[in-house]
Amino acid sequence: MATASAAPLASLLLASILLLLGAPALSSGGGCGGEAHPGYSSGGEGTCTVDAGAAALTPATRERGGAGGGRRIIDITHAYVADLPTFATGEVAGPVVRLKQSMAEGSEYNLSELKMECHTGTHVDAPGHINQANFAAGLDVDTLDLDVLNADVCRIFFSPARAKLSSERVPPGPVARSCSVAAAHLLAYLTCELATMAAPPLLVMLLAVAVTLAPQDLVAGGGAAHPAYTNAAGAGDDSCGLASAGAEVALEEHGGGRIIDITHAYRPDLPAPGRDGLGPVTRLKESMANGSVNNVSELKMVVHSGTHVDAPGHMVQEHFVAGLDVDKLDLDVLNGPALLIDVPRDTNITAQAMESLNIPRGVRRVLFRTLNTDRKLMWTKEIDTSFVGFTEDGAQWLLDNTDIKLVGVDYISFAAFDHLISAHLVFLNNPAIIPIEGLKLDHVKAGIYMLHCLPLRLIGCDGSPIRCILIK
Prior knowledge:
By secondary structure, the protein is of the alpha+beta class.
């Protein structure tokens, strides 16, 4: 266990690392060329060319973030537009979204509805698409293996092609554990942030040493770094926050626990206005049981249902007219290290509550778990107006006093019912803030994770269903 006498050395290491952050990332291995794929050669910094003479790849219109050698995310998903091709000869997909409620017509918000065949544009086939036995057995898209669908960020970073290292050769310790350490500690957070920025391995390992040398009360749960956390009685070193909220809601883990799914399944009894819940989300348009050559489903739902993201144009008409839709959301903000914290259970997320959480500067993504999870409100059809959310002053405090750009909450509105419009406007007036609503945070330990959230590319839409996962 590190002692307090090591704190100055940890501080010195951290200061040195922060000074070095301006240095460019290593250019070898992680880009193109090299032994990773001999069919590609480097055509200059940041470009890839095919040896056969094809033109240089120019994915600039799909790149998010990463200016100045930082993180680079390339979107390889087609936008869902009306002229997408379908399997039917001579046909196109047609309109994918329609505006059900419009601020231009007097509504307090813009609200769109999504309707499209599930095999439209960039999509995935479930085993039951052309195999009736698999379809009857329930092998749907929700049973697909997230461990197969998502690469391990740390493993890629330390691949032989990237830095002549491998995750197996890195000794166990803070580097391997930093993305899942259950503590609100800035050093551990920065370790994750640097790894996703493709920073030089030396910086990441130096920061890992700083984490090791830091006083233990800063690295474990609780302590001065984050007084809102306390270790559960009898729990292990990685336990922080409240005890699990009921055994009947299972923690959805994949890949041996490496991936945690924090997205609610889109089911008919999701909470929605009225007493009947959301209602049917999919219908089977073509059925093998009825003689079709395949099973083809159609998806239809209001985009602000279940786990979803709000675009700036949801409640700000100027942003809606300016085209600030879900396709303009910053993937660099939606993907990266995130802090999962527990909000005191006797309060909305007010300015006072925000201040008490003591979230360090530099943290960009925070998931707020509240009494909503304990009460299992996302498992109740009818909307409960007593849900916990941000008040107007709480939202403004976050904006004025933190570096947070992504706000995740555990009910279908991040704004408390009595502050539904005003708190929304605080965030949505600032397009840099991305609110994610309806997260499934049952049984997940508080702490730092790699967060990956991807909305559908719905052009002109005020929101979108979103799949969010945590990677340890």
